[in-house]
Amino acid sequence: MVNRQYLEMLGRKSVIRELSEYATERAKEIGSENIYDFSLGNPSVPAPEAFRAALIRISEEMDPLALHGYSPTVGNPVVKQRIAESLNHRFGMNYGPQHIFPVSGATGAIAHAVRAVAEPGEEVIVSAPFFPEYIPYINGTGAQIRIIPASFEDFQIRFDLLEEAICEKTAAVMINSPNNPSGVVCSEETLTKLADLLTRKSAELGRNIFLISDEPYREIVFDHQSVPYPARFYDHTLTCYSFSKALSIPGERFGYVAVNPAAEHAEDLVPMFGQISRGIGHNCPSSLIQLAVSEVLEETADLSVYEINMNLLYDCFKELGFEVIRPDGTFYIMPKALPEADGNVDSGAFCRKALKYDLVFVPADGFGAPGYFRIAYCVETEVVKRAIPVIRKFVKEEYKR
């Protein structure tokens, strides 16, 4: 007999992946240049040359037995030291290597962070809009996700609802900044209010509520702004990071959890992550990738294309009369769908109509934003430019605008 939980999950596949698969098959029929696939958040620029050079040099110069052998359970100490020093330099923190745990991407980071601070049956609170895979990430640990509705005016946290949601079962609050799917950054004001609320509620509960900060898009920000670092605002913060987006290496599956040195059990958490790995079969990311990334920690791929694409799409949607918040970063934008003939807003119907024009958008209902749709504009700018007249045609013919 098979496990029913995972058998049932086959009927609840990711809408993002399903649309991406549809786009792939459709491209075989009509040619990839005729499909406008905005479904999947897969980086569209090459990794920096410095990363490739580091891979080659390490492969050629390092002793093969040392390079390809197991790394320690809690990560390569040289890599951990370099990550700690970079974070301290960039964000004014005081991490040591004992506070850094290398993982296989942001997914692995969240898997460890939630298990370390939440007992089965406890809750992790997430503010919409959110990445839909948070649901299996969190519920798969034995904890339960609790979702509070979005503030559609600015996509910042609704503190009145968050305060109501925090209860005896609350183990942690999870944030994602810059946010997938909205592209919005948590402001300093938001993070200050969040830290104050968590501090007050922790005192009321007689135990510390952890903050899990999911930050894979930290380097993709626009208008030369910087992203406030949440761990600077609240002591009990676990920072989950992936190099997938900044370095354009999603297939290499590498990131880390950084434990704020001021957090409760700060010295115990990384060893705990090592024990969690034993239970979930994580057992260390690639030794080669750890070493290569550690040599280019403050480099990025050429991320400028994402801001160019964002501005083109934002201007297009505003001109066509869509309600849309301009992203602060990431490579996503999330407009509100146009109303149907009956006056109702139905993002599913909107996206199905778009498919007739070979425009692949993702309904955002599963992101906690019913009535909105997500566009992943991590594509070549030429694709965006060719898509814009098609978007105009779609809106004119289907919605008379």
Written overview of the protein:
It contains 14 helices and twelve strands. The protein is an alpha/beta fold and about 400 residues long. The chain has two domains: about 5-45 and about 300-400, Aspartate Aminotransferase, domain 1 (Alpha-Beta Complex), CATH 3.90.1150.10; about 50-295, Type I PLP-dependent aspartate aminotransferase-like (Major domain) (Aspartate Aminotransferase, domain 2, 3-Layer(aba) Sandwich). A seven-stranded mixed sheet has the order 2-8-7-6-5-3-4, with helices on both faces. A three-stranded antiparallel sheet has the order 9-12-11.
List keywords for this structure.
Aspartate Aminotransferase, domain 2, globular, Aspartate Aminotransferase, domain 1, 12 strands, 41% helix, 401 residues, three-stranded antiparallel beta sheet, alpha/beta, single chain
Shape: globular
Q: Which structural class best describes the helix and strand composition?
A: alpha/beta
The total count of strands amounts to: 12
CATH topology of the largest domain: Aspartate Aminotransferase, domain 2
**Percent helix:** 40-55%
In short:
The chain is of the alpha/beta class.
List the helices and strands and how they pair.
Elements: H1 4-9, H2 15-30, E1 36-37, H3 49-61, H4 64-68, H5 77-91, E2 100-103, H6 105-117, E3 123-127, H7 134-139, E4 144-148, H8 159-165, E5 170-176, H9 188-205, E6 210-214, E7 237-242, E8 255-259, H10 266-280, H11 287-294, H12 304-319, E9 332-333, H13 347-355, E10 359-360, E11 362-363, E12 373-376, H14 381-399
Parallel strand pairs: 1-10, 3-4, 3-5, 5-6, 6-7
Antiparallel strand pairs: 2-8, 7-8, 9-12, 11-12
